[in-house]
Amino acid sequence: MNIDQKQDPDYSTAKISYVGFIDPYALEGIIVLQSDDKKEFHMRAFSGEVARHIKSFVEGKRDGLPTIYNLIEQLCEENEILLVKTKVYESGSVLRANLYFTGKKDIVLRNYRASDAVALAAFYNIPILVRKTLLKEPVEA
């Protein structure tokens, strides 16, 4: 069984429902991830630059890519693997994520910055899994 087919009861699939900035200078980003049952996770405290990339990827814009995305794409092509999902979780007081690749060989890259993993998920349009304990009912305004 490929890693993208395994189910994990501790995680819910979430979609990016909002991308924005915390401050007026666009230095700190925020995204809202929403699960199928409409629970939300507000992720912040990452660079405005990453938020801008996520926003452009969600909008389908892929021009002006940072070099690292091209590097990952080339590594995947040359090794005949695909990024198939990312899992976001807490590790102490910080957010981390695992990146799951499948193809000739299944690979899991563990404990990376959650914002970078979500940006890659938006770029490749792959599932974002969020630990259920992070998801909360939305607050009515």
From TrEMBL:
| PROSITE patterns named in the record | BFN
Q: Which Pfam families does the UniProt record give?
A: BFN_dom
MF annotations from Gene Ontology: nuclease activity
What region holds the BFN domain?
Answer: 11-141
* Highest taxon, organism lineage: Archaea
InterPro entries attached here? BFN_sf (IPR036104), Bi_nuclease_dom (IPR003729)
State the protein's name: BFN domain-containing protein
Organism in which the protein naturally occurs:
Candidatus Nitrosotenuis uzonensis
